[in-house]
Amino acid sequence: MSNHNNPTEPSQTQLQEVQAALFNLRDGLMNLKMSLQELAFMTDENAQREAMLEAENLIMRLRG
């Protein structure tokens, strides 16, 4: 039989706190990933040239 007052089992509140901490960690890692991608993009000359060409092509298409 299971004992609901077993001190080794985490409580619902503890589980929610851990879940919230994991979501915060995930969000922080996603923000870090995006920042690192932006930094890599800003320092990658080829990516900058490609972005400029794509932007110019888009503007030309929009102008018709």
Strand-helix topology:
Blueprint: H1 12-43, H2 45-63
Instruction: State mean pLDDT (0 to 100 scale).
Output: 85
Helix fraction bin:
over 70%
Structural class: mainly alpha
Strand content: under 5%
What's the count of strands?
0
Ranges where pLDDT stays below 50 over 5 or more residues in a row are: none
What is the N-to-C order of secondary-structure elements (H for helix, E for strand)? Answer: HH
* Backbone shape: elongated
Distance between the termini: 75 Å
Biggest sheet statistics: none
Radius of gyration (Å)? 24 Å
Tally the helices: 2
Q: What features would you describe in this structure?
A:
There is one protein chain. By secondary structure, this protein is an all-alpha fold. The protein has helices spanning 12-43, 45-63.
Compact summary:
This protein is an all-alpha fold. It has two helices and no strands.
Any key phrases for this structure?
2 helices; 64 residues; mainly alpha
